[in-house]
Q: What sequence folds into this?
């Protein structure tokens, strides 16, 4: 560890992790009717930490070899990416149209690329901008942006913009962490930091009580609620996190953000498949263009040198 690496499989691992993250709408949207946003994210982190502890505890000795700078990036990733970003995304889904939210989140790779260039000196190939632009545009079309479609301006858009900023910067922070840390330790510590942050947020809002943490709706539908929480924290949380962090270990941050757009593809399929509508032909075409565009982003970046570590 301590030396930047890159592999062709890395971006596709980022894509797979992000695509699995995109399935979370199937569980997060119904759970919005059961818990307040911050309580929902709190429970999500409780389950993730219980799963992560067996991976983290045996590896704590690695922290002696990790720089303070990397620990700072880990702290930022845990707070902004795991905790605050998840709360903002939950609030966005609760207060806005899921289609609009997914359109707005497509600015995330632009933010992560900008941060990667400014903070880490990532070099962009000459052919990078047009392929990156095509990826962003096709992602927006995939989730419903088309001529003649008007999107309402509401609180959900504001939450989605803030979420995109948190997640975009967390991509860069995660790449910095993976240069010095092992996969299980980095992923596990991120969710532990996220749980500490969520506990503080929930306590500050006066929700750290039995009635607030387990609402009457949760009591009435306990089995279904627990099932949704477990699916959210595992299938759409912990498993993608491990795959995603492995991908970040092998992918520069400027490239990773565009492969995270596979979350848009999965979210679009979930939104329509689970909630009653089919994808239009132009959305299917946009999905194919998106996959092609991100592949070309990777190909373009392979021609440039890695930033100095």
A:
């Amino acid at each position: 560890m301590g030396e930047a690496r890159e592999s062709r499989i890395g971006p596709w691992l980022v894509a797979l992790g992000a695509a699995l993250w995109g399935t979370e709408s199937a569980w997060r949207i119904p759970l919005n009717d059961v818990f307040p946003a911050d309580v929902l994210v709190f429970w999500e982190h409780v389950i993730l930490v219980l799963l992560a502890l067996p991976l983290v505890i045996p590896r704590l000795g690695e922290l002696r070899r990790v720089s303070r700078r990397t620990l700072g990036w880990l702290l930022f990733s845990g707070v902004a990416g795991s905790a605050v970003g998840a709360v903002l995304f939950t609030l966005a889904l609760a207060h806005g149209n899921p289609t609009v939210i997914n359109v707005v989140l497509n600015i995330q790779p632009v933010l992560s690329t900008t941060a990667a260039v400014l903070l880490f000196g990532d070099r962009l190939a000459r052919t990078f901008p047009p392929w990156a632009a095509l990826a962003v545009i096709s992602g927006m079309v995939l989730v419903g942006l088309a001529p003649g479609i008007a999107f309402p301006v509401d609180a959900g858009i504001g939450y989605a913009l803030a979420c995109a900023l948190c997640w975009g910067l967390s991509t860069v922070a995660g790449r910095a962490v993976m240069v010095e840390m092992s996969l299980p330790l980095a992923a596990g510590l991120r969710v532990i930091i996220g749980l500490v942050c969520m506990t503080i947020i929930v306590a500050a809002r006066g929700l750290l009580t039995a009635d607030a943490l387990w609402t009457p709706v949760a009591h009435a539908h306990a089995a279904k609620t627990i099932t949704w929480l477990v699916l959210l924290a595992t299938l759409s949380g912990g498993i993608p996190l491990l795959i995603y962090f492995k991908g970040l270990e092998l992918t520069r941050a400027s490239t990773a953000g565009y492969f995270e757009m596979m979350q848009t593809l999965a979210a679009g399929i979930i939104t329509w498949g689970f909630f009653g509508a089919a994808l239009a032909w132009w959305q299917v075409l946009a999905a194919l263009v998106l996959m092609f565009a991100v592949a070309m982003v990777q190909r373009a970046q392979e021609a440039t040198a890695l930033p100095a570590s």
Observations:
- The first helix runs from residue 9 to 21.
- The CA atoms of residues 117 and 123 lie 7 Å apart.
